[in-house]
Design brief:
mainly beta, 333 residues, 5 helices, five-stranded mixed beta sheet, globular
Length: 333
């Protein structure tokens, strides 16, 4: 395989400068919570817990994952903070990468003193009543399950009301690499992870249920990938691991200026399609999307639901002759 850079910038998304406008929260409601809603009463706005790095270690086929559930302020637009419920203090939560056939051992530490949280891994077979159960405030839960199916999967808090926990920021992506890889692995030069999601009025459960999202973003905010575009070199084949966390809206994932050479729906190598212009991802849907960039320039990455693109769901892939931007090569992490 050619040199591959895997990039996930926790809490990053963008709009292409001058192309789309981002709308603010309605006046007076930026930090307002709905009276007596499940979300509003659960977490005091003053709580802002510092992000905690996840701990992931491998022993053969056993992968030990330590994560936190917590409340942390995150910046979803320039100067606009959202008091989010999170995994490890970022929105989206950390990207988890494992291999098909691994046994996952999750330790979930709930450091939120006010409410219960849980983990729902879409990547595993497990009885939810036994292994997706709530972890009480200040307590720790440990769960084990096999990751036998390859793909790009969502994880999220499954505590009731699930909508409140996801809409307030408790979601992320777990990538299960197929045992034999993808047929195109040897062609890939760079890879990136993109998570689309929505923000509603802060902690307003009624708006989450019946309103329109105030922001729709990639990787948690509407500006970071505008300031720091994803990079590629002319002629590169670029892979995107794409997930739509929702919680309510579909994503019409599209890259302006190129066709999708290969698409693996839900990231499964058996679900292959070719030459697509747009990939429809339902809430919790995922895909591996591969494109070849042939000319220098900026390539907008959007949801083709343009009412949502206008709310921030746009990213930039910058293609240069040397794959550099201002002398700095794209770095993955």
């Amino acid at each position: 395989m050619k040199r591959m850079l895997v990039c996930f910038i926790a809490g990053c998304a963008l709009i292409v400068a001058g192309l789309y406008a981002v709308v603010p929260f309605p006046s007076g409601e930026q930090n307002a919570a709905a009276q007596n809603s499940p979300a509003a009463s659960a977490s005091p706005a003053a709580l802002d817990q510092a992000p905690v790095e996840p701990v992931i270690r491998r022993e053969g086929k056993d992968v030990y994952i330590e994560m936190t559930t917590q409340v942390t302020n995150v910046e979803i637009s320039k100067g606009l903070m959202y008091n989010a419920w999170t995994f490890n203090g970022t929105v989206p939560g950390p990207v988890i990468r494992v291999n098909q056939g691994d046994m996952l051992h999750l330790t979930l530490k709930n450091i939120d003193p006010n409410m219960s949280h849980s983990m729902d891994f879409h990547a595993v077979h497990a009885a939810p009543s036994a292994k997706f159960i709530d972890v009480m405030p200040g307590e720790t839960g440990t769960f084990s399950y096999p990751a036998n199916n390859p793909g790009v999967f969502m994880y999220h808090c499954g505590t009731k009301p699930v909508l409140a926990h996801i809409a307030n920021g408790m979601y992320g992506t777990i990538i299960v690499e197929p045992t034999d890889g993808y047929p195109t692995d040897h062609e890939i030069d760079r890879s990136y992870t993109l998570v689309q999601s929505e923000f509603y009025k802060e902690h307003d459960f009624a708006d989450m249920q019946d309103g329109e999202p105030s922001y729709v973003v990639f990787n948690g905010n509407d500006y970071s990938l505008n300031e720091h575009p994803l990079l590629a070199k002319t002629g590169d084949k670029v892979r995107f691991y794409v997930s739509n966390a929702g919680p309510n809206e579909v994503s019409s994932f599209h890259i302006v200026g190129t066709m999708m050479d290969t698409v693996y729906l839900d990231g499964n190598p058996r679900n292959v399609q070719y030459g697509m212009q747009t990939v429809l991802l339902p809430a919790s849907g995922g895909a591996v999307v591969e494109v070849t960039v042939t000319e220098e320039g900026d390539y907008p990455i959007v949801t083709h639901q343009f009412n949502h693109a206008s709310k921030g769901a746009v990213a930039t892939l910058r293609v240069t002759s040397d794959g550099l931007d201002n002398g700095h090569e794209a770095k993955g992490h």
